[in-house]
């Protein structure tokens, strides 16, 4: 029980640290001090990294993630994209009832993108 408590404290500390870091980064971007670092990214790897980062919170909330992502390579700033994914997952965890799933899907269908955060699904 005590180990679980400390794990929760650690997870929440990391989450708050990411939130503060994101706000600082946003301020720097708006001020023109920081530029986005565009690079080629394996989307499935980035999504799996985000899911692993919130895994303990999902388990504590009795929520699971279902990842169905095509082998896509995208170009973008991996840190900013990771922050966006973590925000979506955090919202899914906060607003989903226990014993539910967060579905993360990504596929290439022309140039269209679709996002549906209301049902804890992220699609691209």
Automatic annotation (TrEMBL):
GO terms for biological process: phosphorelay signal transduction system. Its EC number is 2.7.13.3. Residues 105-124 are annotated as: Disordered. InterPro entries: HATPase_C_sf, His_kinase_dom, Sensor_HK_Regulatory. Keywords: Kinase, Transferase, Two-component regulatory system. Residues 1-110 form the Histidine kinase domain. Transmembrane segments: none annotated. GO terms for molecular function: protein histidine kinase activity. It catalyses: ATP + protein L-histidine = ADP + protein N-phospho-L-histidine. This is histidine kinase. It comes from Fischerella thermalis JSC-11.
């Amino acid at each position: 029980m005590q180990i679980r408590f400390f794990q929760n404290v650690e997870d929440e500390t990391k989450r708050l640290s990411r939130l503060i870091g994101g706000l600082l980064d946003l301020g720097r971007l708006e001020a023109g001090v920081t530029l986005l670092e565009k690079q080629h990214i394996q989307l499935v790897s980035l999504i799996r990294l985000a899911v692993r980062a919130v895994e303990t919170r999902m388990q504590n909330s009795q929520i699971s993630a279902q990842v169905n992502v095509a082998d896509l390579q995208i170009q973008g700033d991996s840190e900013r994209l990771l922050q966006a994914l973590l925000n979506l997952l955090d919202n899914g965890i906060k607003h989903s009832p226990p014993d539910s799933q967060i579905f993360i899907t990504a596929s290439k269908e022309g140039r269209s993108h679709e996002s549906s955060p209301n049902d804890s699904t992220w699609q691209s």
